[in-house]
Amino acid sequence: MTYTATQVRLATRPQGMTDDSTWEITQEQIPDPAAGQVVVEVDHLSLDPAMRGWLNDVRSYIPPVGIGEVMRAHGTGTVVASENADYPVGTAVAGMFGASEYALCTPAEDTEFEKLDTELAPAPTWLGALGMPGMTAYFGLLDVGRLQAGDTVLVSGAAGAVGSVVGQLAKAKGAKVIGIAGGPEKCDWLREIGFDGAVDYKNENPLKKLRELAPKGIDVFFDNVGGEILDAGLANLARGARVVICGGISSYNEASLPDGPKRYMSLLVFRATMTGFVVFDFKDRYPEAVEEIGRLIRTGDLVARETVVEGGITQFPEALNGLFRGINTGKLVLKVK
């Protein structure tokens, strides 16, 4: 059987936020699978801040999406045609399927391709707390941030996919946790899921508020935002602090490079370290993180929340921009089918 897929392709490299000129919507025939291949019907796609960086033709940890290529995207779906005995028709899977309704995959060549345990959690959660955001939170906090029980942890972008998992993992490990988020509703949600304090950067002065909430300073600062939020955290470090650079969403849509941190000398004063990381470096250990996060979900010690955008694959461009407008609490996911 031949499948016709609606796809979203990169037409031009954007300057600032993406718009209609950035994308081309196409219809493509998906060929029958050859030996070792499968065809996947995609049901959900992950929307991640890193996607904006993948559109820039610059040197990075992963090659940029090429002009005319299907937009790179991690997704979940069901095998609908198979020439691979390990993945029979009906198998729930995840992989780097791209912004497409169907994907022809060679599991042996896709390092992200995996079977899903949908009894443990539904598909959207495998794109959030049990997917790349959860892996990022786990290894960034524990390996890069070297979390210790009793630490005071600050998380920026705390109501997002990565930040919300970071905070809950830190609480489960015996830390005091403060989150920075935009708006009272998101800050209220952080308190509901166990954060000890929350800073509404839209209505409060982060630097001053952090000094109230963490008078002895921050031991681990997990930063997803950059800019002024990074500076506020750097100004409130404890001695020996570990600053984890996960992302800088505040500048991803800027046409020019942002100013560097103004408070970087705090690293010297407080004998602190600031370390960047890419989650792919921990690929071999993903099962460890899935087991631990899955256990916390089962026991109710970690809430996995997704904001699901309806409307199918053609909603991908608007949904991606919505990510940078902060429409999501928890993980932002596009429902394809």
Q: What is the helix/strand order?
A: EEEHEEEEHEHEHEHEHEHEHEHE
The N- and C-terminal alpha carbons lie at a distance of 19 Å
The largest pleated sheet is described as:
7 strands, mixed
Helix content: 10-25%
Describe the structure.
The structure is a single chain. This protein has helices spanning 50-54, 132-144, 161-172, 184-192, 206-213, 227-234, 266-269, 286-299, 316-325; strands spanning 3-10, 23-30, 38-46, 75-82, 92-95, 102-105, 114-115, 152-156, 176-181, 197-200, 218-223, 237-245, 273-276, 306-309, 331-335. The chain contains 9 helices and 15 strands. Strands 3, 4, 5, 6, 7, 14 and 15 form a 7-stranded mixed β-sheet that branches. Strands 10-9-8-11-12-13 form a 6-stranded parallel β-sheet, sandwiched between helices. A two-stranded antiparallel sheet has the order 1-2. Helix 2 (132-144) packs across helix 8 and helix 5 runs parallel beside helix 6. Helices cover 25% and strands 26% of the residues. Helix 9 (316-325) links the parallel strand 14 and strand 15 (331-335). By secondary structure, it is an alpha/beta fold.
Question: Would you spell out the secondary-structure blueprint of this structure?
Answer:
Blueprint: E1 3-10, E2 23-30, E3 38-46, H1 50-54, E4 75-82, E5 92-95, E6 102-105, E7 114-115, H2 132-144, E8 152-156, H3 161-172, E9 176-181, H4 184-192, E10 197-200, H5 206-213, E11 218-223, H6 227-234, E12 237-245, H7 266-269, E13 273-276, H8 286-299, E14 306-309, H9 316-325, E15 331-335
Parallel strand pairs: 8-9, 8-11, 9-10, 11-12, 12-13, 14-15
Antiparallel strand pairs: 1-2, 3-4, 3-6, 3-15, 4-5, 5-7
